[in-house]
Predict the structure.
Amino acid sequence: MAKVTDLVSKLALPVAEEAGCELWDVEYVREAGTWYLRIYLDKDGGVDILAYTDPLGTQGPRIKVQVKQQQKAVTEPDLKSFMANIGQHDSGIFFCTGGFTKDAEAYARSQESMLVDSAKLVQLWTDNIPRLSDQAWQRLPLTPIYFLTPEG
Protein backbone atom coordinates (compact mmCIF):
# COMPACT_ATOMS: atom_id res chain seq x y z
CA MET A 1 0.00 0.00 0.00
CA ALA A 2 1.37 3.42 -0.98
CA LYS A 3 2.08 6.03 1.65
CA VAL A 4 -0.13 9.12 1.85
CA THR A 5 2.85 11.37 1.11
CA ASP A 6 3.72 9.43 -2.05
CA LEU A 7 0.16 9.66 -3.34
CA VAL A 8 -0.09 13.37 -2.58
CA SER A 9 3.31 14.01 -4.20
CA LYS A 10 2.15 12.35 -7.42
CA LEU A 11 -1.01 14.48 -7.45
CA ALA A 12 0.65 17.74 -6.40
CA LEU A 13 3.69 17.60 -8.71
CA PRO A 14 1.89 18.42 -12.00
CA VAL A 15 -0.15 21.15 -10.31
CA ALA A 16 2.98 22.72 -8.81
CA GLU A 17 4.86 22.55 -12.13
CA GLU A 18 1.94 24.11 -13.99
CA ALA A 19 2.02 26.99 -11.49
CA GLY A 20 5.76 27.43 -12.08
CA CYS A 21 6.68 26.05 -8.66
CA GLU A 22 8.99 23.33 -7.44
CA LEU A 23 7.59 20.65 -5.12
CA TRP A 24 10.08 20.43 -2.24
CA ASP A 25 8.44 18.03 0.17
CA VAL A 26 5.21 16.52 1.40
CA GLU A 27 4.79 15.52 5.01
CA TYR A 28 1.93 13.95 6.90
CA VAL A 29 2.63 14.45 10.59
CA ARG A 30 0.81 14.18 13.86
CA GLU A 31 1.18 17.11 16.22
CA ALA A 32 -0.72 17.53 19.48
CA GLY A 33 -3.12 14.72 18.52
CA THR A 34 -4.03 16.18 15.11
CA TRP A 35 -2.79 15.00 11.71
CA TYR A 36 -1.47 17.64 9.31
CA LEU A 37 -0.70 17.32 5.61
CA ARG A 38 1.92 19.86 4.55
CA ILE A 39 3.00 20.51 0.99
CA TYR A 40 6.16 22.62 0.59
CA LEU A 41 6.55 24.56 -2.67
CA ASP A 42 9.11 27.03 -3.96
CA LYS A 43 8.94 29.48 -6.83
CA ASP A 44 12.07 30.83 -8.50
CA GLY A 45 12.84 34.48 -7.96
CA GLY A 46 11.06 34.59 -4.63
CA VAL A 47 12.36 34.98 -1.13
CA ASP A 48 13.04 31.72 0.73
CA ILE A 49 14.11 33.22 4.07
CA LEU A 50 13.05 36.53 5.58
CA ALA A 51 14.98 37.61 8.68
CA TYR A 52 14.76 40.69 10.82
CA THR A 53 17.43 42.42 12.87
CA ASP A 54 15.08 42.93 15.82
CA PRO A 55 12.83 40.36 17.55
CA LEU A 56 9.54 41.95 16.48
CA GLY A 57 10.50 42.70 12.87
CA THR A 58 9.60 46.37 13.21
CA GLN A 59 13.00 47.86 12.45
CA GLY A 60 15.10 47.53 9.33
CA PRO A 61 16.94 46.29 7.59
CA ARG A 62 15.22 43.07 6.66
CA ILE A 63 17.43 40.32 5.31
CA LYS A 64 15.98 38.46 2.33
CA VAL A 65 17.60 35.20 1.25
CA GLN A 66 17.16 33.06 -1.89
CA VAL A 67 18.46 29.48 -1.66
CA LYS A 68 19.22 27.26 -4.68
CA GLN A 69 20.48 23.71 -4.56
CA GLN A 70 21.58 23.13 -8.13
CA GLN A 71 24.73 22.39 -10.09
CA LYS A 72 24.17 25.17 -12.62
CA ALA A 73 25.66 28.56 -11.76
CA VAL A 74 23.24 31.41 -11.13
CA THR A 75 23.20 33.95 -13.96
CA GLU A 76 22.70 37.71 -13.87
CA PRO A 77 19.03 37.46 -14.99
CA ASP A 78 18.37 34.94 -12.17
CA LEU A 79 19.93 37.32 -9.68
CA LYS A 80 18.00 40.32 -11.05
CA SER A 81 14.75 38.39 -10.57
CA PHE A 82 15.60 37.94 -6.89
CA MET A 83 16.85 41.51 -6.48
CA ALA A 84 13.49 42.83 -7.68
CA ASN A 85 12.18 41.67 -4.27
CA ILE A 86 14.80 43.61 -2.30
CA GLY A 87 13.57 46.95 -0.98
CA GLN A 88 15.61 50.09 -0.37
CA HIS A 89 16.16 49.24 3.30
CA ASP A 90 16.61 45.48 2.79
CA SER A 91 19.72 43.36 2.44
CA GLY A 92 19.89 40.48 -0.04
CA ILE A 93 21.78 37.22 0.24
CA PHE A 94 21.71 34.65 -2.57
CA PHE A 95 22.97 31.15 -1.76
CA CYS A 96 23.59 28.62 -4.54
CA THR A 97 25.49 25.34 -4.38
CA GLY A 98 26.35 25.72 -8.08
CA GLY A 99 28.02 29.09 -7.67
CA PHE A 100 27.58 32.21 -9.79
CA THR A 101 28.57 33.44 -13.23
CA LYS A 102 31.01 36.36 -13.51
CA ASP A 103 28.15 38.61 -14.71
CA ALA A 104 26.07 37.69 -11.65
CA GLU A 105 29.03 38.42 -9.35
CA ALA A 106 29.57 41.83 -10.97
CA TYR A 107 25.87 42.67 -10.69
CA ALA A 108 25.79 41.63 -7.01
CA ARG A 109 28.75 43.93 -6.25
CA SER A 110 26.93 46.84 -7.89
CA GLN A 111 23.85 46.12 -5.76
CA GLU A 112 25.77 45.51 -2.51
CA SER A 113 24.30 42.03 -2.23
CA MET A 114 26.04 39.00 -0.81
CA LEU A 115 26.53 35.87 -2.88
CA VAL A 116 27.26 32.64 -1.03
CA ASP A 117 28.36 29.40 -2.69
CA SER A 118 29.15 26.14 -0.89
CA ALA A 119 32.77 27.08 -0.19
CA LYS A 120 31.75 30.50 1.19
CA LEU A 121 29.11 28.87 3.41
CA VAL A 122 31.69 26.52 4.93
CA GLN A 123 34.10 29.44 5.41
CA LEU A 124 31.44 31.56 7.13
CA TRP A 125 30.43 28.62 9.30
CA THR A 126 33.97 27.73 10.38
CA ASP A 127 34.84 31.39 11.03
CA ASN A 128 31.83 31.70 13.34
CA ILE A 129 31.93 28.33 15.14
CA PRO A 130 33.33 29.92 18.35
CA ARG A 131 30.21 32.12 18.55
CA LEU A 132 27.72 29.26 18.11
CA SER A 133 25.80 27.47 20.81
CA ASP A 134 26.12 23.67 20.91
CA GLN A 135 22.60 23.38 19.50
CA ALA A 136 23.44 25.65 16.54
CA TRP A 137 26.72 23.81 15.88
CA GLN A 138 24.84 20.49 15.68
CA ARG A 139 23.01 21.74 12.56
CA LEU A 140 26.26 21.51 10.58
CA PRO A 141 28.88 19.80 12.74
CA LEU A 142 32.22 20.43 11.07
CA THR A 143 35.48 19.29 12.62
CA PRO A 144 38.80 20.82 11.60
CA ILE A 145 41.38 18.44 10.18
CA TYR A 146 45.01 19.47 10.49
CA PHE A 147 47.79 18.50 8.07
CA LEU A 148 51.53 18.69 8.50
CA THR A 149 53.06 21.01 5.95
CA PRO A 150 56.71 21.48 5.07
CA GLU A 151 58.25 24.54 6.63
CA GLY A 152 58.94 27.07 4.01
